[in-house]
């Protein structure tokens, strides 16, 4: 069951996509301000990637890919990285998630435990690509960097994805 | 007919065509490199990041403070011993300078700043400090603590700056072993130490020796303490030592830093460039 305002927003795509845009900016700000405060053993979750996976599973592949590209650019600008790297890595991560999109059954995927697993694998793919990119000219061992710096972040992001999962689960029950 | 087939193909594989286009766009953006047009946007982002971190970090990080206090106490004991020695040495030095009629070196132009945030982006670590271009800070300025080198400034806004720490895979520090002519390039090992390799086994290196930035560096001023030699590993199949350096400044325990406002001597870099250009032209 959906609430009336939600139905109205869903019917007006412009409002819906503007809301997604605003939410992406908000998540970008949270990523650089609040998230560092909850780091565990040098690992921080990636809110924008969770959102990218969520949009893909909620709105479909085309919208998902377009928003993922945009979210990657936001992430790179906000974290002062090379522009385009996160877009690229997010896109490949989300490509995996897109295989689980089911038209008309979106909420079933978002409210199932599979969502957490999808986020985990998507973040893993994305982090692997970023790891390869940033270690290209460095002398750091690939696996050292991946295990110490990226794997923790992958697990942490998957754990944090339980929040949208529970929200969807509650909506499904309603 | 052909157009119909193209249309059908596009409709059928629309998602993957869009995906491919976006990947190509990402790669193009990466290859284009830095966007000067978004420089202003990034400066605004630095301001927002600094502001948010400044306002959100109202609760001090107790663990970090405890660790820093312990390190500072130990350092204080060492320094109090050094002060006595230095007092006598400075006195003697002044007398000798007068004799040689040398000008006393001017004190470095420095700015104190508080660390208001730590950014960890994958395997790269940055600090956000509460001083920026408003206080005369600029790209490339060296940042250190009383203990040692932290990194250099990579972005500034009016009131905040972002510091790229030495705990980054692409940062290479030209270093020297104090009291020795040994020089090399130190790089981060991806965990908590720095590695200095390509040092021939014929050169004697001892554990505990202090490592400082060398005068070969075009990025950092010379003689800034970096760390000490923690261990020396002799690889079996190599003629070179692998020296593990324990840095003095641990970026995630730093609360206050000093920014050295003097930028590295650009005339030295220009001379090297000119030299290479001349040699290239001769060839």
Provide structural commentary:
The complex is a heterodimer of chains A (174) and B (283). Chain A is mainly alpha-helical and 174 residues long. Chain A is 75% helix and 0% strand. Chain A has a single domain, classed as Arp2/3 complex 21 kDa subunit ARPC3 (Orthogonal Bundle). Chain A has helices at 4-11, 13-33, 47-59, 61-78, 85-98, 106-110, 114-134, 142-160, 162-173. In chain A, α2 (13-33) packs parallel to α4. Chain B has helices spanning 2-12, 14-32, 39-56, 62-100, 266-282; strands at residues 110-121, 124-129, 142-144, 149-156, 161-165, 172-177, 183-188, 194-200, 210-213, 225-233, 240-247, 256-260. In chain B, the strands form 2 sheets. Chain B has a 6-stranded antiparallel barrel. The longest helix of chain B has 39 residues, at 62-100. Chains A and B meet through α2, α4, α5, α7 and α8 of A and α2, α3 and β1 of B.
Structure summarized in a few sentences:
The complex is a heterodimer of chains A (174) and B (283). Chain A is mainly α.
Furnish the topology, listing elements before pairings.
The complex is a heterodimer of chains A (174) and B (283).
Chain A: H1 4-11, H2 13-33, H3 47-59, H4 61-78, H5 85-98, H6 106-110, H7 114-134, H8 142-160, H9 162-173
Chain B: H1 2-12, H2 14-32, H3 39-56, H4 62-100, E1 110-121, E2 124-129, E3 142-144, E4 149-156, E5 161-165, E6 172-177, E7 183-188, E8 194-200, E9 210-213, E10 225-233, E11 240-247, E12 256-260, H5 266-282
Antiparallel strand pairs in B: 1-2, 1-12, 2-5, 3-4, 3-12, 4-5, 6-7, 6-9, 7-8, 8-11, 9-10, 10-11
Low-confidence stretches of chain A: none
Per CATH, the architecture of chain A is: Orthogonal Bundle
Shape of chain B: globular
**What portion of residues of chain A belong to β-strands?**
under 5%
- Helices and strands of chain A, in order, run as HHHHHHHHH
CATH C-level class of chain A is: Mainly Alpha
Computed Rg of chain B = 24 Å
- Taken as a percent bin, the fraction of beta residues of chain B is 25-35%
**Oligomeric state of the chains in view:** heterodimer
CATH fold label of chain A: Arp2/3 complex 21 kDa subunit ARPC3
Query: Helix amount of chain B, in percent?
Result: 25-40%
Structural class determined from secondary elements of chain A: mainly alpha
Q: What is the approximate shape of chain A?
A: globular
- Which CATH architecture of one domain in chain B would you pick? Beta Barrel
